[in-house]
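Recap from last week: sequence in, structure out.
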Amino acid sequence: MTRTAPLADGSTEQERRDALLIRARALADRAASDPRAVEEDAHALVLRARHASAHAAHAVGLRALAAVHRARWEHAEAARLLGRALRLGPRHGDRLVDAELLAARAAVRHGQGRVTGAVRDVDAALRALAEARDAAAGERERLGAYLELQRAALDHNAGRLRDAEARYRRILSSGRASDDVTVRVANNLALVLAARGRHAEALAWSSRAVAVASGLGPVPHVVTRQTHAWVTVHQGRLADGLREFAQVADAYRAAGLPLGEHHVEVADAMADLRLLPEAIAAAQDAADEHARAGTWLMWVEAQTRLAQLHLARGDAVRARELAAALLTRSRTQRRGAWLARARVVDSRARAALGEDVAGDVAALRRAAAGLRRHGDLAAAVDAYLAAGRAALTGPRPVRACADLDAAAAAAVRGPLLLRVRGRLAAATAAHVRGDDARALREARAGLRDLASHRSALPTMELRALASGHGGELGEAGLRVLLRTGDPVRVLRWMERTRAAALAARLPVAPPGSDEASTGEVRQEEEGGAAGPSPVPAQDVLRAVARGVVRAAPTATGPVLPAGAAEAPADVTSTPPPAAAALRAALDGRVLVELGACDGRYVAVVVDRRRTRLVPLAATADVTSALRPLVFALRRLADPRSAAAGAAARASAELSLARLRALLLDPLGLAGTELVVVPVGELHQVPWGALHDAPLALAPSATAWWATAVAPQRPSTSVVLVAGPELRGAREEVEVLARLHADARVLGPDASRARDVVLAVRDAGLAHLACHGLPRGDNPMYSSLVLADRALTVQELHAAGVAPRRLVLASCHAGADVAYDGDEVLGFVSAMLARGTRGVVASIAAVPDVEVVDLMVGLHAGLARGETMARALHAAREGVDTSSPAGFVNWCTFGAHGAA
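Predicted structure tokens:
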């Protein structure tokens, strides 16, 4: 019997139990919002309720503790506590409490990926709720709304987005949900709407969720802010979205919450910016954290993004390995949408590995139709594209057109980058049908959309990376134009996709300001000259956020750093020159612009009378000649023995002969001064060693023309810089100083980063003899080692450093990195983009002492008024190539630009 006699304080034992139950429910309601503040009180209440045999309060207190553990992703412990609480049911007999516990366990099981168990718990909770006849109407309604949220979330995570949206809207319109449930529903609805391409409405719901969550506690507030940032980025408002992401990371840490879901959202943002190494790192962090926590539902989503990112970066082997694990886990979780995504990644990876995927078409079509039916727009477009590409490999390629048309139609309503993929699908379908005019229109429209996206980005690096979204579109248009045989149109198309990011006119920090000598991301001072270490994804995110905010346009113009000079109004690109203007600037030189299409190189040759197309070698043949050359030059820079040096020299000469035969001999231009515009891996070719006349390189014909017609600067100052720890650097600059009257010399001890930036910024001629530290993964963070620290390309570019002519006597300083979309980044491209008219740099390691003779010859020619290309050619003729070091220096230095 229940004891009702009054206790010493006048209350009955039942009243105390009821009071404990009320207290327990209050703690359980707060636990999901502010777990740190609740945990200690919840432990105390559980002990007190157990001692008082208050079984209902005991069970609800355990639910509160389970909510604390779930917030920390300790799902196994949360499930254990809820199981223990449910076993108290026969003692207290309160069916409302049972319903609450079952609803809580359903959420935990859902997070663990135990979908069947979650559905079973939701159904059991609804039965218990129906049997809780003594419960107040308000309590029944609130719990009913929460269970409807659970069902909607099950639809959502299964990819049934239309069904999920309908459920979410019913909950919001009912007015029965608590504030906590309302926030979750509005937040989830925003995610669904964004996935379906309805970003404006998504942002409105997300903003409502943030407003309500701000008064509920740190957890709902940080979760809704994260969604708001994600939707904002995908809507195209990069400045606000990236800044908010950076703030959200701090909020997660302050709340003591795991960052797994945040890492996934960061990976998405980084992928859209084509910062693939950082995106992969963030997705891997997310997958690892979810695996440790046993949250297999979210693990599938993180692992899917990771597989897609590895595929985008070209690692099909790793992508296929990840897809295999995804297929197994998605089947276990009965999540059709994620199983469909896994099939798409698996098929694309196997296709990239050269396997026959024609048999995948039917399964991919079913996957695409299911994704589209459920409203997952982006995933449906990818699946239709995969189906179309698989069909293209079959016996009847025309059957691919239906899938490609479906991808194009689905993408029309999507965000900008999805529309770019849709344009690619439409261009491919038109090509299959033989409609070249339509294929070209679609490719041109897609590149125009991409240019709009690129123009919103704040740095040359991000713009170059974003061009990768249009790499296949560029090749699609080039394929069509090559069939026309019109070299002028081919050249114009190449220029449309070539080094577009380098033409961006971006804000420049004024001389003497902090921005002029320090970049947004730089080494810590104590790092000294040890070289830049990889920048963590979170730090890159912060730097990107700061950069976007700084350069974001407003109603009154761009927001610049304090004291910065305002950028010109046109921040898109320099228009390509007309043929007559280009020929006038060439002044007898011959332009050779190279392109790649369908596994072969082609050259457009512009001389003083005509423009012609010349087919060249297969890309694979060039690669097989170039790779051993790179290896041989590396060995020659530091040969271990005379025999090793001789073997490397023989290999290098053989490779040079092969490259000459593949790339230059078909042009018939021996003895002619050239301007060469490489593409892709051809930026690694030592072009000067292949040609018997002066040769200048450029990232595009437009970029070279800009260096040729730029007004003459008044400055004729010469600055000579010697970095530390180079035996020949001091001697080099002292010898060069004798050739230039009034040259300013900064020796190894005086070559501090700030002084170097200010000295060379507007110099007529700057010579930097320093250690070079290349970053192939992120060339804008390659650096020059100076007296106090390493100075990155990013810092030089941000400070507007642009001497008229620049000699980089540093290892690998000329080894700019080629990116998808015909972009190139590195020391040379950054200097040319800022206005430097001529650069000499090496694509390989520079033997220290032996380079002095080449540099003396180069500067002697410059002092005579020769261009960089002609002075370098003459200097190379005076180099003693009998030694390994001399041969390397003769081979690897190249001239860039027209000055």
